[in-house]
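Fresh eyes needed here. I'd like your take on this protein's tokenised backbone:
***
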Amino acid sequence: QVQLVESGGGLVQAGGSLRLSCAAVGSISSINYMAWYRQAPGKQCELVAEITDYGSPTYSDSVADRFTISRDNAENTVYLQMNSLKPEDSAVYYCSAEVASWRPESRVAVYWGRGTPVTVSS
């Protein structure tokens, strides 16, 4: 009943920028945290950035000076602005959110998007 839909990935040259979006759709009562993870081939999945329901962000050390996470609670959407991209940023980026829903019954669960690929060329 709840789905996360990512968009905005693509191919960009090193030093360029991309803006990722993730919209939560369904029978949503509220959304707690929203986050972005990424996984590159042969590497473990890592947390990139997270934002609370009040808008307080946290970042991994590798992206803290280049990426910005934000959210629009009215639209149930989280964004990731990625600047000064490096080849090592290439990965599939996944949106995650803790969502309170009301159908088929009231519950709180963590949901994941299908991922949007980002490729940074050198």
About this structure: DSSP finds no helices and eleven strands in the chain. The mean pLDDT is 96. The CA atoms of residues 3 and 25 lie 5 Å apart. The two ends are 41 Å apart (CA to CA).
